[in-house]
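Thread: quick sanity check before group meeting

JM: Hey all, I'm pulling together slides for Thursday and realized we never actually wrote out the predicted structure for the chain we discussed last week. Dropping the sequence here so it's in one place. If anyone has concerns about the input, flag it before I start.
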Amino acid sequence: MGDPPPDGNRVLVVEDDEHVRDAVTRALRFEGYDVITAVDGNDGLVQFDRHPPDAVVLDVLMPGTDGLAVCRILRDRGSRTPILMLTARHEVADRVAGLDAGADDYLVKPFALDELFARLRALLRRTHVTDAEATLRFGDLTLDPERRQAWRSGRELGLTKTEFDLLELLLFNAGIVVSRETIYERIWGYAFETSSKSLDVYIGYLRRKIEANGEPRLIHTVRGVGYTIRDA
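JM (edit): ok, ran it. Output follows.
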C-alpha cells in the first residue's frame, strides 16, 4: 500500500467497537506494524504500561474512561507518545477537544485505511527524527525546524513566523491533504472562522516565495478540503 513503517512500529489500538478494532488491527499488521489492542480506555492505560507503544490509535467515544480522558492522563504523566484520535463526530469543536486533550492528530470516521497509514507514518517520522536529522525535505525544498530557515534549490526563502509554521505543517504531512480546519487549529488557534481568507492569503505568500524563480508548484489546493505538498 504505502511506505513501510519506521523502525519503532508498535501501535496500541484502543477501540471499543470490535469490528473497527479488528479491521484496523488486521490492516496495521498487514502493513508491518506490531499491534497491541485494548477494548476500552481503562484497558488502554493498562496495555500502555505493559507494552509501551510507539504510537496510539485512540477512539474518542468509549464507555467509562473515554479517549479524551485517556489522552489527558497520558499527557499528565509526561508521555510524548504520538496519539491519533478517531472520532465519529464531524464538528470542529469535537476535533478541537481532542487536540486540547493532547492528541497529535485525528481522523473522522469513516476513514480510508490509506489515510490512517499515512497519518500514522507522519506521526512516527516526527517522533524518530533526531536532532542531526531534523531537516525536512521534499524535492528541492528544505526546511530546518531548529534554525527556522527554509530553502528552495539553495535559495533562502526568508519566511515570516506564520509562513514558516504553515510550511512546516505541510512538509510534516507531505503527500497528505491537510484540511483547512486542521491548519487553522494548528497555526492560528481556535478563534478563527474557517471561512476566513487568512489561510488563502498565506498560501499565496508561500507560493510566491517558493516559486520566485519559476520553479514548479509544490503546494496544491484540494478544493473543498485543504492543501497538500506533492509534485505537480
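AS: nice. The two ends are 21 Å apart (CA to CA). The chain is about 40% helix and 20% strand.
JM: adding both to the slides.
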